[in-house]
Amino acid sequence: MDTEIVLEKIIKKELIVINSQAKNKDDLLIEMVDILHKNNFVSNKEEFLTDVHLREQEGETGIGQGVAIPHGKSKGVKTTTLAVATLAEPIEWESLDDEKVKVVILFAVKDSDINTTHILLLQQVAVMLADEEFLEKLKHAKTNEEIYQLITEK
């Protein structure tokens, strides 16, 4: 069994939003799901968004230091991927440190993917986010390319 996921196969530049103007969590999630749908990673926006909201109700996905990692495993997802957004202004999000969020990494997981895919992906991203230098670069990235390079070269 693989113990690592090749992030270049999971993340795409067109799924990265820089300086989203979203003013709250719901607006941002809708914006990110729309991008996933527009780029053919999600077949059913409403179903996926519902699954993300259900997961949000289970516990906070704000992991601290201005980062949130919402996720949903859903029949509405065609291909497992990540969408990333930085925000023009930090927004409220239930988080471990009660800080507002500046970066959101949305995990869209295909329902038929085995659980280890989801867990491995979360683990790899968590390891990246534990790196202070990586986190600072991510928060201050100015382009899709910059974020893509940060994540895929890590």
TrEMBL record:
- Coiled coil (residue ranges): none
One Pfam family here: PTS_EIIA_2
- Domain PTS EIIA type-2, by residue range, is 9-154
Gene Ontology CC entries for this record: membrane
Gene3D superfamilies according to UniProt: Mannitol-specific EII, Chain A
Please give the start and end residues of each transmembrane region.
Answer: none
What GO MF annotations does this protein's record show?
A: protein-N(PI)-phosphohistidine-sugar phosphotransferase activity
InterPro entries referenced in this protein's UniProt entry, alphabetically: PTrfase/Anion_transptr, PTS_EIIA_type-2_dom, PTS_IIA_fruc, PTS_SugarTrans_NitroReg
| One of the protein's GO biological processes | phosphoenolpyruvate-dependent sugar phosphotransferase system
Please provide the record's keywords in A-Z order.
Phosphoprotein, Phosphotransferase system, Sugar transport, Transferase, Transport
Q: Which domain of life is it from?
A: Bacteria
NCBIfam families associated with the record: fruA
Q: What is this protein called?
A: PTS system, fructose subfamily, IIA component
Q: What is the species listed in this Swiss-Prot or TrEMBL entry?
A: Enterococcus casseliflavus EC20
